[in-house]
Specification:
450 residues, alpha+beta, Nucleotidyltransferase, domain 5, 7-stranded antiparallel sheet, 5-stranded mixed sheet, 15 helices, elongated
């Protein structure tokens, strides 16, 4: 009897969330079982076809190629981090501190052994150091594994320098050594000396994210306080169809100006930064112990305020786009600090500009609700007249004023830039509809009537 041949086809039911592999040599009952098992209700939402269960069901390795090609469509999830405050007692805080110190000493030991052996692959490092690290530092098996992963990740950038770890640097936990018990607002976390139950404080947004917690959680101490940073897998909706685009110009004088004319001023942020900078200079020049204490207390205050402002601005922009059924277009400002030159007096203002943070906030907030977002080329967006299309440096009369030298069209320069960004964004997001007949004719090199 010859070997039975089977062919595999793949289909994805977007409405019900099924990935279906149909193998002609298999029965209908097998197909229905697979479809039911593959409905994404958790993570991982797609099984590994290499496991014996799926081989037994009649699905063979030819299906892997089809499965991998559909993986992106199925795994419509995005990773967000929930920051949760940990409230240990004084004794528990001492245990946590000892745990961090011991784990980072273990990381230094693993790094030294890997450096001396010139071995930087995670599995090879594990084979080289696992047993002796457990014995020497009295750490549980999973903590040693996480330490090995931390060292291997540190060497991903290059192998030119030996890596060292700060005594109180963060360490990663997984579900084997940390359990969330949100029903009573606590976590069970492994420390030197055994597991400890500690209360946590989380707001409504963090609680919503923690319902989808997957993967690792990092333990860190910041300013004497303890925090958990939990990775959460949030379902990402498919980008919706849009009829227009909201252009957004990012800047220093104004944080953002959109093509509808809404201005999000940065006067408050820039004023606060200027005051903080002057105070820092005075305290650093003073150099006394009390001045250093005050500097330490104020550290991070400016960054937290700027992050809060960026969260508020990004939420307003995304809400405006969602409420009107539009996408969002931004300038691609990657590497702008190295591309432009400014006066010495303006350098501090430019380098404290957190436009990348605002862009990242806009990106993840838009992805989370299915609003398309595109990046466009920023060249000449502030010099192009949206009325006649004329491009000239002379159109930019001043930092805030645009006036076309040909047609006389004028307005706020940032608003003009946002209008031009909108035009470029429309071309990227709204694709023209092309019929099958027209597409076939174009393939064959035939002209089509206008």
């Amino acid at each position: 009897m010859g070997k039975r041949q089977s062919t595999t086809a793949v289909s994805f039911d977007h409405k019900n969330g099924f990935l279906i592999l149909i193998q002609k040599a298999s029965g209908a009952s097998v197909i229905s079982q697979v479809a039911a098992r593959w409905k994404p209700r958790g993570f991982p939402q797609v099984p590994d076809l290499r496991q014996p269960l799926w081989r037994k069901a009649g699905f063979s390795f030819p299906a892997l190629a089809a499965y991998q090609s559909c993986e992106t469509a199925v795994s419509g999830y995005m990773k967000l981090t929930a920051k949760v405050k940990l409230l240990p007692t004084d004794d528990q805080a001492r245990l946590l501190r000892r745990t961090l110190e011991t784990a980072n000493l273990a990381c230094d030991h693993i790094s030294t052994r890997a450096w001396n052996a010139k071995t930087f692959n995670r599995f090879k490092i594990q084979k080289l150091t696992y047993a002796e690290t457990r014995t020497k530092f009295n750490l549980t098996a999973q903590v040693v594994i996480r330490c090995i992963s931390k060292v291997a990740d540190a060497y991903h950038l290059d192998h030119k320098h030996k890596r060292r770890f700060r005594p109180h640097g963060g360490i990663a936990y997984d579900n084997r050594i940390l359990n969330w018990r949100m029903a009573d607002g606590t976590v069970s976390i492994w420390c030197l000396g055994g597991r400890q139950s500690m209360p946590v404080v989380a707001g409504p947004h963090q609680l919503e994210l923690l319902a989808h917690q997957r993967g690792q959680t990092d333990l860190a101490t910041i300013g004497g306080k303890w925090y958990l940073f939990a990775v959460c897998e949030i379902e990402e909706p498919a980008p919706g169809d849009v009829s227009d685009v909201l252009g957004v110009d990012l800047g220093v004088t104004n944080i953002a100006v959109d093509s509808d004319g809404r201005v999000h001023s940065s006067a408050q942020v820039n004023g606060l930064r200027h005051r903080h900078r002057r105070l820092r200079q005075k305290l650093q020049a003073k150099g006394t112990r009390s001045a250093r204490r005050l500097l330490k207390r104020r550290s991070g205050k400016e960054a937290r305020f700027a992050a809060d402002v960026n969260h508020v601005v990004s939420m307003r922009i995304v809400a405006a786009a969602q409420g009107t059924g539009r996408g969002i277009a931004l300038e691609d400002l990657h590497g702008i600090r190295s591309r432009i030159t400014v006066r010495r007096s303006q350098r501090a203002t430019l380098h404290s500009w957190s436009f990348f943070q605002l862009r990242s906030f806009l990106e993840y907030k838009a992805r989370r609700i299915g609003v398309p977002l595109v990046l466009v080329d920023p060249r000449n967006t502030s010099r192009t007249c949206p009325a006649c299309g004329y491009i000239d440096k002379a159109n930019r009369v001043s930092q805030s004023v645009f006036a076309c030298v040909v047609c006389g069209f004028s307005g706020l320069a940032d608003h003009i830039a946002a209008l031009n960004i909108r035009v470029l964004g429309r071309a990227a997001v709204i694709r023209p509809y092309v019929s099958d007949a027209q597409t076939t004719a174009q393939r064959q090199g035939q002209a089509t009537p206008l």
